[in-house]
Amino acid sequence: MRPYVLRRLALAVPTLILVSLIVFSIMRLMPGDVVIRMVEGHAYAPTVDALRQELGLDRPAHVQYLEWVGGIVLRGDFGNSYWTRQPIWDEFVQRFPVTLELAALTILTSVVIGVLVGIVSAVRQDTVSDYVGRILAILALSVPYFGLAVLVIVLPAIYFKWTPLWTYVPFTVDPIQNLKIMIIPALVFGVTRAGPIMRIMRSALLEVLRQDYIRTAWSKGLPERAIVLRHALKNALIPVVSLVGLQMPLYIGGSVIIEAIFRLPGVGLFFFEALTRLDYPVVQSVNLIIAAMVVGLNLIIDLSYAFLDPRIRYR
Amino acid sequence: MAVAPAPVPTIAIDIRQLPRTLPWYAEVWVRMLRRKPLGTIGGAIVVLMLLAAVFASVLTPYGFSETNLRERFVPMSAAHWLGTDQIGRDLATRILYGARISLYIGFGAITVASVIATLLGIFSAYWGGKIDLFVQRAVDAWMAFPPLLILMSIMSLLGPSVLNITLVLGVAAGIRDSRIVRGVALSIRENTYIEGARAMGSGHVRVTLVHILPNVLPTIIVVATTGLSTVILTEASLSFLGLGVPPPYPTWGGMLSLAGLDHMYRAPWLAIWPAVALSLAVFGFNMLGDALRDLLDPRLKGGG
After folding, report:
1. What is the per-residue pLDDT across A266-309, written as a single tens digit (0 to 9) for each?
2. pLDDT tens digits for range A186-202
3. Which of A46, A114, B218, B269 is most buried (most C-beta within 10 Å)?
4. What is the ipTM of this complex?
5. Three-class DSSP labels, A221-250
6. Do residues A174 and A95 lie in contact, with contact meaning Cβ atoms separated by under 8 Å?
7. Does B277 touch chain A (CB under 8 A)?
8. A/B interface, count of CB pairs below 8 Å
9. Rounded to two decimals, what is the model's pTM?
């Protein structure tokens, strides 16, 4: 297994280089000059040229690229924000726990709902509960999470005088209060993401339940609960894991919107605020860090198949 | 020991006597009506949306940015079926015109995406080798970005406009979908009739256009229809964040936007109806796309 892991790690390097090139070129080729806005709107420097020189934007693009990548590889330095001059990495690290907690709670909600409804749907195939489950999954697929979020904020406020909690409290300060704040955004986002998980759980479990070893388990006289939960579920979970892995970019992308709506001070809000100010280095580095995380996660998920299905061989 | 070949019995068939068969692109709708109730409902929603978009100006007496400060926050009534907003614009009108914008961007972006996916996918599969390896690593790298993050970055640099968002969504979806087209083109390339065509002296362009493209076409149609709901949803997300379609054009995402949150507390219909319209559209395109995929190209099934 070790050569396989090493080979996969080596393959990730060219991907990461291409990722950095793509994000760097996008940021440099597009119109929209932040420097003009900084000088004219906010008097950051006497002239546009002076600020350009100060920020190192007067040098050729390849020098800027190499300096950016070199800083990351050699010193772990992701650059500074144009506006606040603060190191991006520090800000990212400080805000990342919020996003991680949101993502973890979202994945937990969507997997718990999706897997439970999927199991019921598969075991009671073509009954009323199956149809209800499938209709719920289609609804979850169709309702946009940001629309649901707006409705969850607006409607209870009008009819029940209830609003989500707006002031963020870190988990380390008050875990209970923190969870009270996070649960609504995580539920809203998780419910809308449960649809695909339910569908794939149902079809995977149906397929596994038709296999020979399940018939053997039945003929041994095992109860249904043991057959489904202990024998079938483990194999049927493989496509669910790979789906969650494949959809990781969607979870992260969506958390930007969710954080912006519920005013959670995570990486998403950091990114969104940087975008509105055209803060290139922040946008560029956050994109790179998150893409690198996606590459890493895909790797971990590939390796985790080994635990779920030892039949998968490494070449 | 030579054996004389058995005489082949001749079969006379008068093709005029055979039952008429429809071409595949017509027959698929018949099968959809018979076998795919959800797909049919989805198709009906899409047709309704198309009608709303085409006849928006006939269906409503108001203009989409026509304000009337004497009729602000009017609830649902005979004059304003879905009520009015904070500056007295008719919500039903804006939702109808919103369908126009959504479809305009949706179909525009999907057309761009299909062209790019087809060119890139067939090119990469047909040439294979180092070219394929490089193109696929670039596609890998592109797919590592959460789509919303990179699209937000590009749109904030380009500035919101209908043309920009159509092109950006189209290119992004095209790169992603090229992976699927490539997969299908790879398997078609291995067929003996491709070898035959080449042996008969067909050039690369002829092989690609006459032999590969028609066989990839059903896949492209499936990828395009299933992609439409994603494009419409992404456009709505970007407009929701103020990075998509600029005002005064009415878009469902823009109507839900946080900028109007204070008004929504006063007039909840401003939040409800755009959300309903958007969900219905996504539902319609999802169901239609799923049904078409099952009928045209069952190989693509799976993955949520």
Report:
1. 998 999 888 888 888 899 999 999 999 888 887 887 777 666 66
2. 999 999 899 889 989 99
3. A114
4. 0.85
5. CCCHHHHHHHHHHHHHHHHHHHHHHHCHHH
6. no
7. no
8. 161
9. 0.85
